[in-house]
């Protein structure tokens, strides 16, 4: 990762040149055109940047996905320190201009706000200096916007809509604070890293399975809502549950299910949910039609358990690790939600796309005979079963809203839980 440090150092130098040019354009003293040309080359087609160089043959959204370097890199603190220096340099030059609200901007549009977007992209190095029409949303702006969107966790569609404007209008001081906070978070986690581990980025809504500094599995996840936030946890994966029962948490039973049950007790049967009393040999199933669901103490008398099957809220598999908040990773029958750019829909636990791949990775590291076929057979049996790991795997659930990728690109994610003390871009766009 040594070359990353050089990449960021070059960005600091480039930013000085660009900011000087922007300052001059705004009426400041001095000239930076020669320095800017020396850094950027003859035209935008000759501009070379690690982000661009690694993204020529694939969509911007896949840039991080193609990298085998983990977010929790052992040498990831120095790039963050250099990124902080770069953003302080931007702040010293006065930060960046706010992009005015208005109709969305897209390829081919001519609008006075495009000139502001151009300067905004230049400020963080998402676009090269261009001699084109400053008010025209051309290919150079389009590609720069996609770069900006990808590294900010936005849909890289090249369209400047409300969410992109909201992200662009986050002040530079807020970005500096994010970088500093995440530097501290990484400083606490990185020394604890072991050779093989699972990392869930709560804010980034992704999971990585890492072995010897190489990402061997990476996927999208769904995390908790604002009201039911996914907590930060450091633990050890100790078992996998195939075809799990779902014991409905009492908070969910009362808030989400009780109104539906009162309206029609057959709701439970349709969802494969049983009403139970007692445990182990004393367990007893009750007829939901014979229960007074208006009883204010109903939550104390019974509990709800969903059978394994296609409607089970945990899907076909659950990944367990000790913690005090009853949090785990699991499958889900509602897979369409993984297609969303923002994926904070759960009640606190973490849903994993292609979770069978993660389960195979966990089990195979413990026993080479656990291949994907064996995992599939376990699931297809429809039988509840626990498989225990003889070598537990560390797992880190971390709220990371800023980091530097292995190509030197600074990534930001929305502070959806406001844990950074900033307002999320979701709130800013409304």
State the low-pLDDT regions, or none. Answer: 1-6, 18-65
Helix-and-strand structural type: alpha+beta
Note the beta-strand portion.
Answer: 15-25%
Globular, elongated, flat, extended or rod-shaped: what is the shape? Answer: globular
Q: What do you see in this structure?
A:
The protein is an alpha+beta fold. It folds into 3 domains: about 1-175, Orthogonal Bundle (Muramoyl-pentapeptide Carboxypeptidase, domain 1), CATH 1.10.101; about 205-245 and about 310-400, Beta Barrel (L,D-transpeptidase catalytic domain-like); about 245-305. Helices cover about 35% and strands about 20% of the residues. It has an 8-stranded mixed beta barrel with strand order 1-2-3-12-10-9-4-13. Strand 9 and strand 10 (about 330) form a beta hairpin. Helix 1 (about 1-25) runs antiparallel to helix 2 (about 35-40), helix 1 (about 1-25) packs parallel to helix 5 (about 75-90) and helix 5 runs antiparallel to helix 9.
Put the structure in a nutshell:
The chain has 430 residues and is an alpha+beta fold. It is built from 15 helices and 15 strands. It folds into three domains: 176 residues, PGBD-like superfamily/PGBD (Muramoyl-pentapeptide Carboxypeptidase, domain 1), CATH 1.10.101.10; 130 residues, L,D-transpeptidase catalytic domain-like; 61 residues.
